[in-house]
Model the fold of this input.
Amino acid sequence: MVLPWPVAYRFFRLVVERTPLYAHKLSQRLSNVQNFLGPLSAQARDDFVHKQKMLRLLDQVDYWLIRFRPAKASAITQVEKNGNWLDSPDFMALCNHWGAGFLGIHHLREHGYTPLIVFLETPLFRRQIGVLNTTYQRMRRRHYHQLSGGSALTIKPDESRSSGLRRLLKNHNHPLMMTDSPRHTKRSGGDSLSLKMGQSRWRYPVEAGFTRLITRHGREFVEFSVAFDYASGQRLLRLRPGRGHGQSRQALLQRFQDSLNQRLAEDPAQWQFWHVADTLLHPENENTVP
Done:
């Protein structure tokens, strides 16, 4: 990472365009995007593949930038006009699985806040992880613990909602959570988002117990997303503050649903879950979670 960013990014583009990088991981993504959005032209397929490869590569590049070249990571992150973190001692930072959230966490840290990164342990992705990827994920997990001031918070699938929320309340850092963490239990009901995919809408069951903490305790929060500029490699950080006081859980879920649908409409290729979309999404006329 010693090269100037424009030079380094040109090199990354060459790697994506002229090598079979990640080719073995793209067939399921390409199949799913066409199943949900409709058939793509040859040009659209090539564009989707290019963007997905770049998304995966730069996600790993960001990890190394933040660890060893934090000034460069800050330099390539542009903040949308009028976007700011809240001047509050306990606001929550919320994002979804779209774009390049890692640099959003870095920006939060750079502005003097200590995020408490909250993990929801799920079994869904374990079957897709090989030895090298497992090692890399463990390195990232250790880095998340460092970013969280020494210890991130892991909530296990069998842990009750109330227990997990109590653990969050005891911590005085800024909880950082995903608004679209998939729900994998087989119970019926529960919280879901409605995603617009092509000409249809799909039900996306999510773990949204954190909304109870926001509404019951009137917590302030900031939604953030980080979009890729594929031409330059720059990132655009968007920050949208909100307040839980006087809000209902349904209003919050609607807000998070709208945010994810807006991002998907902006650039579906930046969604990080295309490889498991056929597992996560269900027709809206289904009454139970498989």
In short: The radius of gyration is 19 Å. The chain has one domain: 76-283. The first helix runs from residue 5 to 18. The CA atoms of residues 27 and 181 lie 23 Å apart.
